[in-house]
UniProtKB/TrEMBL annotation:
Protein name per the record: Coenzyme A biosynthesis bifunctional protein CoaBC
Record flagged with keyword Flavoprotein: yes
Record gene name: coaBC
Ranges for region Phosphopantothenate--cysteine ligase: 192-407
Record function comment: Catalyzes two sequential steps in the biosynthesis of coenzyme A. In the first step cysteine is conjugated to 4'-phosphopantothenate to form 4-phosphopantothenoylcysteine. In the second step the latter compound is decarboxylated to form 4'-phosphopantotheine. Catalyzes two steps in the biosynthesis of coenzyme A. In the first step cysteine is conjugated to 4'-phosphopantothenate to form 4-phosphopantothenoylcysteine, in the latter compound is decarboxylated to form 4'-phosphopantotheine.
E.C. numbers: 4.1.1.36, 6.3.2.5
Cofactor requirements of the protein: Mg(2+); FMN
Reactions accelerated catalytically: N-[(R)-4-phosphopantothenoyl]-L-cysteine + H(+) = (R)-4'-phosphopantetheine + CO2; (R)-4'-phosphopantothenate + L-cysteine + CTP = N-[(R)-4-phosphopantothenoyl]-L-cysteine + CMP + diphosphate + H(+)
Species whose genome carries this gene: Nocardioides cavernae
Amino acid sequence: MTTSVVLGVSGGIAAYKACELLRRFTESGHDVTVVPTAAALEFVGAPTWAALSGKPVATDVWTGVHAVPHVRIGKGADVVVVAPATADVLARAAHGLADDLLTNTLLTARCPVVFAPAMHTEMWEHPATQANVATLRARGAVVIEPAEGRLTGADTGKGRLPEPAEIFELVLGVLGRGAARGPAQDLAGRTVVVSAGGTREYLDPVRFLGNRSSGLQGYALARAAAARGAQVTLVSANVVLPDPAGVSVVHVETTEQLRGAVLAATASADAVVMAAAPADFRPTAVSDAKIKKADDGSAPAIELVQNPDILAEISHDRAREGAVIVGFAAETGDATGSVLDLGRAKLARKGCDLLVVNDVSGGAVFGSADNEAVILGTDGAAVDVPRGSKTALAHVIWDEVARRFAE
């Protein structure tokens, strides 16, 4: 079934990036109608949008008026994405103004609406813009937090349009939820922390102990939470992926750095999902110089010490009453028990509320786009999630978290 996407483009310098977003939608089989504002055409002309979408482009309600485009486009959409969304468009959408085709479309749409703001930092932080964003979110719209970085001219700060690839992934997550999956913004007003990736423990300036975690599941969790309205902090350990759209990212390397960043973020968090794979051990000493090979072929003896257990620490010493703590367990099963036996024992030992148990026998899961798991709860729940995308698993995890919020 073809998905109908309306791509609204407003008049900011980041309008050129919307061409890349449009290309991603069309190349993945979506039917895209581009609705630019008149100001947007000052940055990217109508022929470009028409050529990339394969459809004519209009900004006003009078073009093709016999087809009633100001009603038809919005009513027929499966999702409306406005990227970039300027302060002006956010204000007009929040106040229900309808003076062009895009704002008419926003009023008639009965599908998920995603705004990807882009503007100077001062404009984003202005109380009027923040009030407009709060109004739109209260109505169920997804308003992505802008990225930080280089803006127009020499200015830098918060207000940069997130990367098109990340906007695309977030929109796919919104579409994947579907109208029957409950309130699209069930995490609105919640602050969540997600950790991702694998930590490194250095032996010398060149070598380290690490693991195979790619960070894909943690990044999927961060995107899904942002799509559901949460304010998300992602603590990322050695992940080579672009920062998710609308997410505040803290980059770390070692387990101690991961611990410090997680503890700092959990003080105000409603939920913490520890999807990262911290190294269990670290060397007792780190060499200042590269460790050389011995002429006699002998190998150096490396003494290890156990790292702190971050999940157990934040579970047993809760920074916020009522916070939901989620852990991950990558198990293979052994003589002491099956994967689920070991998972249940770990859930009791760690003290978290939910434990996502992965069977990683043979290296499964690591670096894969798919995942399957059983989500165990301290209330006896055991939710079996069949193999599917890591985004799908992420949404099931947030479903379980949201259910505990409701309770």
